[in-house]
Amino acid sequence: MIRHLTPLLVAMLSLASLLNTSMSSADELPGIVFHVDSDLRMNRVLRQIERHHRGNPGVPSRVILIAEGVRPAVSGAEDANGGRYSAQIEQLLAQGIRIFACENTLTSFGLTADDLEFGIESVPSGIAELGRLQATAGWGYIKL
Fold first, then answer.
1. Sheet holding 121-123: strands in order across?
2. In DSSP terms, which residues pair with 102 in a beta bridge?
3. With DSSP H G I counted as helix, E B as strand and the rest as coil, what are the percentages for the chain, rounded to 5?
4. Is the Cβ–Cβ distance between 102 and 127 less than 8 Å?
5. Angle separating helix axes 42-55 and 86-94, nearest 10 degrees
């Protein structure tokens, strides 16, 4: 009986190891990804992301900026009142929230990743990254 269980046990442990490796690859545990494609109410959007993170501190959070949503991430960007977005962005980054700008959008605006505020990362395609995180990494999605 034990001889028959040993190959089964080895197979199960191998499968568990394979599943665990794929889950812990380049991504941390699944979390929430925020899709931001407008700068119209960006101060409110940044506050909502911070509130979500404060209410769920153990849940990883990422922000994907696409289209007009990229504009506040550009170094020196100001809101309609002349306030810089960088202060709110720095607070989010300090809390471990990763913020990504779409390189396709940057290119369409004549910008590069070097034009972004310090700490903001980039991805080749924001929409592709949103899809990848949801479909293959198990992340939840919130459109702001």
1. 121-123, 98-102, 61-65, 32-36, 140-143
2. 123
3. 50, 20, 35
4. yes
5. 20
Judge contact between 86 and 57, C-beta under 8 A: no
Helix, strand, or coil here: 22?
helix
Per-residue pLDDT of the chain (144 residues; tens, 9 = 90+): 545 545 544 444 444 433 443 333 454 689 999 999 999 999 999 999 999 999 999 999 999 999 999 999 999 999 989 999 999 999 999 999 999 999 999 999 999 999 999 999 999 999 999 999 999 999 999 999
* Contact status, residue 66 vs residue 35, Cβ threshold 8 Å: yes
- DSSP reduced 3-state for 99: strand
CA distance 60 to 43: 21
